[in-house]
Amino acid sequence: MAIISVVHVAFGVLAIVLGWVILCSQKGTARHRRLGYLYIAAMLGLNATALMIYRVFQSFGPFHALALMSLASLVAGWVPAYTRRPRHDWLRRHYEGMCWSYVGLMAATAAEIVVRLPFVRGFGWGFGVATGASSFVVVFVGAYLLYRYRDASLEAFRPPAGSSQPASTE
Predict the structure, then answer these.
(1) Strand, helix or coil at 56?
(2) Is residue 170 predicted with pLDDT exceeding 50?
(3) Ramachandran region of residue 136, left (φ > 0), alpha (ψ -120 to 50) or beta?
């Protein structure tokens, strides 16, 4: 395995672990922010190395486009939290952008695992169906969970009556 692939996998494992810890821990704390910045760094490294790997299509391909989409969701989640803009909607945008970032990471991981299975060989139809189906299932489940628990997750941060600031941002 080439060194770039090893680094790519290391960033991926780190991002999966950090993302899971963030999802399972209290939001809005200094620890949440520190872990969030580490997650962003891991995802930047993961996507940068993804854009350097050309073994599947020998040129820019669908996985490179998905890496760019991953970067877009990461930015879409980070910018609202960093700028606290738009003023009344930044928290929801942060939640959705970061959750979609993690869902995309899990979908890519599922696709990578599926194509390593013995009955999925080569880069033909089996490869395409396996990556597409596994990714679709993960994205479908992720979207359900993201929107099912969004309001409950954000409820603790609703501003008190008469205030324009979230209840807890520290």
Answers:
(1) coil
(2) no
(3) alpha
Share of the chain above pLDDT 70, in %: 88
Among 41, 67, 48, 42, smallest CA distance to 4 is for 48
Q: Nearest-CA neighbor of 81 among 99, 93, 69?
A: 93
Place 57 in a pLDDT band, splitting at 50, 70 and 90: low
For residue 81, give every residue at least 6 positions away whose Cβ sits within 8 Å of its Cβ, in sequence order, or none.
Answer: 36, 90, 91, 94
Tokens of 87: 């003023």
Residues 6+ apart with CB under 8 A from 113: 134
pTM assigned to the model: 0.88
Give residue 162's pLDDT band: very low, low, confident or very high (50, 70, 90). Answer: low
Helices 90-115 and 125-155 pack at an angle, to 10 degrees, of 150
Asked if 37 and 43 count as a contact pair (C-beta separation under 8 A), the reply is no
Task: Evaluate whether 77 touches 94 at the Cβ level (below 8 Å).
Answer: yes
| Residues in CB range of 50: below 8 A, 6 or more apart | 8, 63, 64, 67, 70
Tokens matching residue 92: 């929801």
